[in-house]
Amino acid sequence: MMFRQHPRLTVFTVVYLAIVAWMTLGPQPLDDHGDAFMRMVAWRISLWEPLNWFDFPHLEFISNILMFVPGGMFLILLLGRRYWWFAVQVCVLATVGIETVQMFLPQRVPDLRDVIANTIGGMIGVTVAMIVTYPAARVRKASVVSAPQTADTVVEPVRSTALRSE
What is the domain range of residue 114? Predict the structure, then answer.
């Protein structure tokens, strides 16, 4: 099972999911001080001439994208490259689920822009993980294809031990 093959990655993924759940379903994290800080960051960015259009909603949208990038990456690393399509679906379903639950939370407001941003983030994470894992997958595929197979010998694919614990 994938969780036994990658115990550290599994722990990182669970911690990541707990943080995302707390940030998206917990009490609104932006109080007066946090909101003021985020607005100041957006204002500072907008001072640079090419980005004078940048404001708080843009910063929030980008933050939502960035929040789901690790999720897409973790899913590819846990499930494998073959299931990239499933990883994208999980990201979409997760964000739709979060926004649906937010409808019933008095301190939260669901927003279609969050679904879009989180989905983009998950897809970026899946894409990055697919690119990063491509060389290892290519080597693994080449080693399986080049090994001679007969009726009494079966060659198992080489598995990376980089993420396994000792």
Answer: 2-143
Evaluate whether residue 166 is within a structural domain.
no
Which amino acid would we find at residue 38?
M
Tokens 């980008």 identify what position? 62
3-state SS of 36-82? HHHHHHHHHHHHCHHHCCCCHHHHHHHHHHHHHHHHHHHHHHHHCHH
Mean pLDDT over the full length of the chain: 83
Whether 150 maps to a domain, the answer reads no
Q: Is residue 139 part of a domain?
A: yes
Q: How far is CA 15 from CA 10, 21, 48, in A?
A: 9, 10, 36
pLDDT tens sequence across 66-86: 999 999 999 999 999 999 999
